[in-house]
Specification:
By secondary structure, this protein is of the alpha+beta class. It is 20% helix and 34% strand.
Length: 317
């Protein structure tokens, strides 16, 4: 007989405003304890020195984590000019200094060159794996870490303010895999100086925003009490932009068994209405739920069928 998981079958997303000085994994542990949840994970690591949106998935919501991880993100951060650090943030040791302090005009002239598709070398202190080991583990052991440049997308970037000559505050909207620390490091070098991130706050991950986030300390106060569930968001929150369709009871049973269903004419018409003209709908991901709103599956549209590839199971575990 299968071993029963510890905890309760809790499903949904919790948007936490992560405080400074704690790891993302520690935040997940706190959220899991608050809800006594069987299973939990997060959508995109924040460094201990960073604050802001950390979306935590509970139960079956963990099956939608890749969509949140791949979502666009918005960051607001402060660059400290004149110092290079081995971690590219304030927690590392100083490796080089410069007396050069860029002006507003110099910064704004270069920002367009740091938007769009960029080739970016990730920081040595990052979670990227090198021959099976995390880069930050190797770097902490004193090993020289060489990471290959990778393409990232920075859709928007703006200079918010210059509070003093040593600091500048920025905001960027970027795609998956973009490192703010590397962006500041490279911008500083292009400006003829050195730089690192001294403050970092993530304000948005896909549909999850900091305005909707609950501070971790406030959430802790709801440990094992019903008030916590006021902060539990639907599984579908992470699926912003994915077409959604309602299915009948018999179709839901087939899908949950891993079997495809034929797509109805009215369902196809609804998808067509929401798609961009000229889009190839074959292979399109569709979110399926019951008429009552209970998630059923994520499915691919192919050859007139909806073929489930991720099924939601709301058993008690």
């Amino acid at each position: 007989m299968a071993r029963r998981r510890k905890g309760s079958a809790v499903h949904g997303w919790v948007v936490v405003d992560k405080p400074k000085g704690i790891t993302s994994t520690q935040v997940v542990s706190v959220v899991r304890r608050v809800f006594d949840a069987q299973k939990a994970g997060h959508a995109g690591t924040l460094d201990p020195m960073a604050t802001g949106v950390l979306a935590v998935a509970l139960g079956e919501a963990t099956k939608t984590m890749p969509y949140a991880v791949d979502a666009d993100k918005t960051y607001r951060f402060t660059a400290r000019w004149g110092e290079a650090r081995d971690t590219d943030d304030t927690e590392g040791r100083v490796t080089a200094t410069s007396g050069k302090r860029p002006t507003r005009a110099e910064i704004e002239a270069l920002i367009p060159h740091f938007t769009g598709t960029l080739l970016q070398v990730p920081p040595a202190f990052s979670a990227i794996k090198v021959q099976g080991e995390r880069a930050y583990d190797l770097a902490r052991e004193g090993e020289a870490v060489t990471l290959e440049p990778r393409e990232v997308e920075v859709y928007k970037a703006r200079l918010v303010e210059i509070p003093d000559p040593d600091h500048a505050v920025f905001e960027i909207l970027c795609g998956k895999g973009t490192y703010v620390r590397a962006w500041v490091r490279d911008l500083a070098l292009a400006l003829g100086t050195f730089g690192h991130v001294s403050e970092l706050r993530r304000t948005r991950v896909g549909a999850f925003t900091v305005e909707d986030a609950i501070p971790l300390e406030k959430l802790k106060a709801f440990m094992h009490i019903p008030a916590a569930f006021e902060h539990l968001r639907p599984i579908s929150t992470a699926l912003d932009g994915i077409p959604a369709l309602a299915v009948t009871g018999p179709d839901a049973v087939r899908l949950r068994s891993g079997n495809p269903i034929l797509i109805r004419a009215n369902q196809f018409a609804r998808i067509t209405e929401t798609a961009d003209p000229g889009d190839d709908l074959q292979g399109l991901t569709v979110f399926l739920s019951t008429a009552g709103g209970e998630p059923v599956a994520l499915a691919l549209l192919a050859q007139g069928e909806l073929r489930p590839f991720r099924v939601f199971n709301f058993g008690t575990g």
